[in-house]
Amino acid sequence: MPLLEVTALRTHFDTDGGTARAVDGVSFSVEEGETVGIVGESGCGKTVTALSIMRLVPEPPGRILPGASIRLRDRELLELPDRAMREVRGREVAMVFQEPMTSLNPVLTVGDQIREALVLDGRLDGRRARRAAVRLLGEVGIPDPGTRYAEYPHQLSGGMRQRIMIAIALALEPGLLIADEPTTALDVTIQAQILDLIAKLRERRRMGVLLITHDLGVVAEVADRVLVMYAGQIVESGTVREIFLSPRHPYTRGLLASLPRLSVTRKRLSPIPGYVPDAAAWPDGCRFRPRCPHAWEKCGEPPPASPSGGRPGERTVRCWLPDEPERRGAAARVATAAPAPGGKPAEAEEPPLLRVRGLRKYFPVRSQRRGNRAVVRAVDGVSFEIRRGETLGLVGESGCGKSTAARAILRLIEPTEGAISFGGDDVRSMNGDALRRLRRQAQIIFQDPFGSLNPRMTVEDMLGEILKVHGLATERNTRRRRILELLDIVGLLPGHADRYPHEFSGGQRQRIGIARALSVEPELIICDEPVSALDVSVQAQVLNLLRDLQGELGLTYLFISHDLAVIRHVSDRVAVMYLGRIVETASVTRLYRHARHPYTRSLLSAIPRTEPQGAARAERILLEGDIPSPAAPPPGCHFHPRCWHPGRDQACTAGIPPLEPAGRRGHRAACIKLRGESGA
Amino acid sequence: MTVFLLRRLVQAVPIVLGIATLVFFLLALAPGDAVSFLVSPNITPEALEQIRRNMGLDQPVHIRYLRWMGSMLTGDFGISLTRNEPVRDIILAILPNTLTLSLSAILLAFAGGILIGVFQAVRHNRLADSALSVIGLFFYSMPSFWLALMLILVFSLGARNLWEWPIWFPASGMTSVDYPFMSPGEQIRDRLAHLVLPSLSLALVLAAGIARYMRASMLEVIRQDYVRTARSKGLSEFRVIARHALPNGLIPIVTLLGLYLPTFFSGAVLIETVFAWPGMGRLVVDAIFQRDYPVVMAGTFIFAVLVVIGNLVADALYAIVDPRIRYE
Question: What pLDDT, on the 0 to 100 scale, is given for residue B33?
Answer without folding.
Answer: 67
